[in-house]
Amino acid sequence: MIRLTRGITTAAALLALAAAPPGAASAQPTPAAPPPSPGALPAPGALPTPSPGSRYGDLDLPEGWRIDGAGGALQLVWTSPEPVPMGDARVEFHAGDRLLGRPVAQPDGRTFRLALGDNRLQEGTRLRVTAGGRSLDAAGSADSARVRPLSPTALPTTPLPANAVDPGTPGRYRTVRGEYALKSVTLPGFPAPVEMRATVVGPVDAPGKRPVALFLHGRHSTCYTPGSEEIDGSWPCAAGTRPIPSHQGYLQAQRLLASQGYVTLSVSANGVNGQDHSAEDGGAQARSSLVRHHLARWAEWSANRSAAPSAVRGTSSADLSRVLLVGHSRGGEGVNRAALDSLYAPPAGQDGYRGPVRWKIRGNVLIGPTIFGNNPVPDVPSATILPGCDGDVYDLQGQNYVDGTRGVGRGAALQSALYVVGANHNFFNSEWTPGQAKAPAMDDFSSEDGADPVCSPGAPTRLTARQQQTAGATYIAAAARLFVGGDDRVRPLLDGSGRRAPSADPARVLGHAVGGHRTPAFLPGSSVSVSGPGRLCAQVDPDEARACLSPDAGGLSPHFAFWETSPEPGRDAVALRWERPGAPVVVRSARPVSLAGSTALTLRLIVPPNSSGTELDIAVTDASGRRAHLGRTGVDGVPGSERTTSYWAREVRVPLSAATRAGLDLKRIAALELTPRGRAGSAWLMDAWGWRPGTPAVHPAALARVDVGRLTVAEGDSGVRTYRIPVRVSGKGSGQVRLFVPRPDSDEVTTRTVTVRPGQQDIDVSVDVRGDTRYGYDTRQDLFVKAVRGTVVGAHRGGVTARNDDAMPKVSLTPVADDVTEGATLTWRVTLSEAADADITGMAAFRPVTDGPELSSADVDRSWLEERFGEAPDPAVSLSELSKEGWGVMFSIPAGETGTEVSVPTAADGIAEPTESLRAGLSTFDESWEPLPGPEFTGRVRDLHQVPARPPRGSTTGSS
Fold first, then answer.
1. Which residue, among 233, 248, 230, has the nearest Cα to 429 in the 3D structure?
2. Helices (DSSP H) in 111-239: which residue ranges?
3. pLDDT digit string (tens) for 389-434?
4. Which of 494, 520, 517, 518 is nearest to 695 (CA)?
């Protein structure tokens, strides 16, 4: 059991298991943030202007950042200079290497708000905002300039050999297109119903029942105003706007498959896109439910065609025992979850579809997918398309649909990764492509100078939209032909055999894979040791000495994409670095491995982007010491720049015939040697496998399924109550998962591996909630899990949230110096009725004076004005005019204290003038972000030569 105790002022956790080294993790704040305060944003209709920097208490905030709110409603706010398009990658706030959480986008498209909860910010900590590993608040890391420039040698002059069969060739069947719209469905956690709409393209003259391909688009804007550039992410669409038809964007691939005999449908998911910001899993379960609702209807129509819509009746009959799912971006994660849910039933309370499973998923195609849950389904074949110029899911995290399946299931399902050089994220969907889309669209890859050598339009490696869509259709058809049709002749296009489909030319599509007829040999981890000019390295670790890829390397690797925490145990590789040729790197297994029955040893090796001609001699040694040199292999890096994620593994193979001739015992191979034959260089070994040709039959294993839930409780007024984080283990058999328990308000994450069995309480994480009567923050204790062996994970994250149930203290104000001569400081004291366990912040907003001249921006200290308001207006304006833009004098009373001062430093201008005054209203905000109006107060400033004629007047003492 893991027991955690919630303290009075912070949610400190006492973990009863060995602590891991500190890393980049924290309790993730609640996804949904309260609506913005009217006093914290510009006037209606105006766009916020990013501040050149602001302060919160003693904390200096960088440009574009501010803190709004009070107590449990305290929010960290970032405003982009330009609109941030709605996309699939999650926007994340970081403090240094620590993930603070995922903010909620505001309607202006530029402002992002994160409820801070019990997170603390410290002076000197670098705030960052990222999406899919890409920095949104900086032009790019200077370190990235270390990527080797693209040179002609990085561009092969000879294309890969053509495959014997080209799946991009249209078939013999005529096709027909239609559309159906059914009654919307209600999905858990989504207040608005989600549409049941799809575009159908199928053959009209194909005999018998035909296999099915279902397409699901990703997260994109949902609504547009015809005749304008206006788009938004609302749902349902407002009057005068139309839904963006994202589901109509895959017609080229649908027509190709239909001509080859497939019945295809492309599902609309705007209703999910418009509401998934509040979903802890980013909408994966909702998308799965939507997919399975459609499949259930098709199963009904297959049994009773007369009940089907005309668009369905117009095509050949569908065979629901042969289904391919195709998902783009978050749609990729959605169809992965749909395949998982079809094999291993999800908890009824989390699922939006509860009917029988009357279909069989034979394979998935995932295009630029997200993988927030890091939970690939291991025993369903997949092909993951990684766009080399992806400007949305920039870190190409979908690589883990391949890497993350190793050792989890039976290993027979082929898991393929296809790196498409020069492809961006959006153009795989024609409705996201400028010049083809009905609604406004954009190229998601952008560089400020417009001169990226790999990805800028017009670069030799950059694909046009038509070329990219043709390549996508071809490789979708390749996956259909292998996974559904069982045609092994197309396997070399998907499994790293180095073949190309001429119909996709000039696209350069590179492949590697795990699974299929591969036998695990050397998988870096705790069971291997490394000697020579190499080391076992951590794929995700803030410690540069442990990390595989140094920040100074420039660029990113899809294999090393950040998940929920850093360091992340269980993800390793072998890093090779040599200064001269000839010194072997020896990778030794703790126990001998078997290569019996394999014809080759296949390795996945990363070399730096744009490099060419890295040569390695490959040798193996058996348990008795006999050694065989298998051959020499050359590896080229993929084209890349400082703006791409291009440290990607190439698959190379060497035959095992030399080992057989040398008499090695292939059942007991003890070591692998990699000897560099070139000058100084570097490489990374992801894994090595025994390989033989062919595609084995896939039979999904009976696995245990783990789902984590969330429990929300009131803290109470006294005593300690213990709650258990809800975890459900279902399915069959037993397996292992890795638990991650972040300590709230710290970088510490505790991990351990647990064996789980259906129906048992093998995962026991308890949280002690201590009641009190003081106002404070809501607190969260999170838990997230990841499959290790013999399990699948549905809902990977959950926890216990303790809600603050105490009222905010009342606020009063008294004057300290409210009648001063120019050059002095006006000051008032703000006092709480009692101390709170949360910082209380508020704002004094200036109002027009009702009697006499008003202080202007020229009458106050210029540096103070710039610090508080971001600028000193020229020409000067009245202070009340400044507050019309939504700004005021912020104040903060730290937790445990009862007061602070609000001050306005004035300036001596040497100009004879009458007495001037200010008038202001004090306000704070409650936990629902509703303003709590406080007292109004005034102050006066006299000319230097004037003497106060009477005691201070016009100030009030009041409370709120």
1. 248
2. none
3. 999 999 999 999 999 999 999 999 999 999 999 999 999 999 999 9
4. 517
3-state secondary structure of 403: helix
Q: How many CB atoms lie within 10 A of CB 552?
A: 11
Question: DSSP letters along 88-133, please?
Answer: SSPEEEEETTEEEE-PEEPTTSSEEEEE-TT----TTPPEEEEETT
CA–CA dist 513, 510 (Å, integer): 11
Q: CB count, 10 Å around CB of 544?
A: 10
Please tell me whether the peptide bond between 236 and the residue prior to it is cis, using omega within 30 degrees of 0: yes
Nearest CA to 958 out of 809, 813, 808 is that of 813
8-state DSSP, 929: S
Instruction: Give phi and psi for 51, each to the nearest 5.
Output: -75, 145
Q: What is the pTM of this model?
A: 0.85
* Distance in angstroms (rounded) separating the CA atoms of residues 573 and 513: 16
Return d(Cα 630, Cα 618) in angstroms, integer.
6
Q: Count CA atoms closer than 13 A to 958's CA, side-chain side.
A: 13
**Whose structure tokens read 């990729």?**
332
The one-letter code for the residue type at 388 is G
What lies within 8 Å, CB to CB, of 479 at 6+ separation is 324, 363, 365, 381, 383, 416, 494
- Show the tokens assigned to 671: 């070591």
| Segments in 246-317 forming alpha helices (H) | 251-259, 270-273, 284-303, 310-313
Taking only the tens place, the pLDDT of each residue in 830-869 is 999 999 998 888 889 999 999 899 999 999 999 988 887 7
Nearest to 783 by CA among 837, 714, 728, 838: 728
Q: Which of 141-150, 165-174, 723-732, 835-844 has the lowest mean pLDDT?
A: 141-150
Task: Find the range with the poorest average confidence among 73-77, 210-214, 477-481, 537-541.
Answer: 73-77
| Lowest pLDDT segment from 111-115, 220-224, 917-921 | 111-115
Cross-strand bridge partners of residue 714: 803
Strand partners, 710: 799
User: Beta strands 791-793 and 704-708: pairing type?
Assistant: parallel
Give the integer Cα–Cα distance in Å for 618 and 635.
Answer: 13
Inter-residue contact 318 to 302 (CB < 8 Å): yes
